């Protein structure tokens, strides 16, 4: 696996070092969180284990902000709350801190990268009646 993210690249984001100090997070803790985040990304989209070059860089560009968000949430102790209303219906959504590394949009991007990696290795691509690509390896 060649997805590389360093603690220093995470700490370069604004506010991260202050959040780390507030929550007593060390660079080695950040390295562990990076390893966990990459592991979760690969578990969710197994083709990421074979990511190289621009695919590895693209995966890192999705994973790194998720790690930064985790560090910032840990430092602030904040959760997230959102309310949506449509007519007489409303929904309240609240999440506590650090419930997941990836947001839905990040999961989608990582899955798209995995498809691109799989397609690169396929000998043939068929589109079946549902419009979904099917990769064929011979």
Structural notes for this entry:
Helix 3 packs across helix 4. The model has no long low-confidence stretch (mean pLDDT 82). Strand 1 and strand 2 form a beta hairpin. The strands form two sheets. Strands 1-2 form a two-stranded antiparallel sheet. A two-stranded antiparallel sheet has the order 3-4. The protein is built from five helices and four strands, in the order ααααββαββ. The chain has helices at residues 7-11, 16-22, 27-44, 53-76, 104-121, and strands at 80-86, 89-95, 124-127, 133-136.
Strand content: 15-25%
Name the strands of the widest sheet in spatial order: 1-2
Gyration radius (Cα, Å) is 18 Å
**SSE string:** HHHHEEHEE
- Global outline: flat
Secondary-structure class = alpha+beta
Biggest β-sheet, characterized?
A: 2 strands, antiparallel
Q: Which bin fits the share of residues in helices?
A: 40-55%
What is the strand tally? Answer: 4
* Low-confidence runs: none
Q: What is the rounded distance between the termini?
A: 24 Å
Structure annotation, total helices: 5
State mean pLDDT (0 to 100 scale): 82
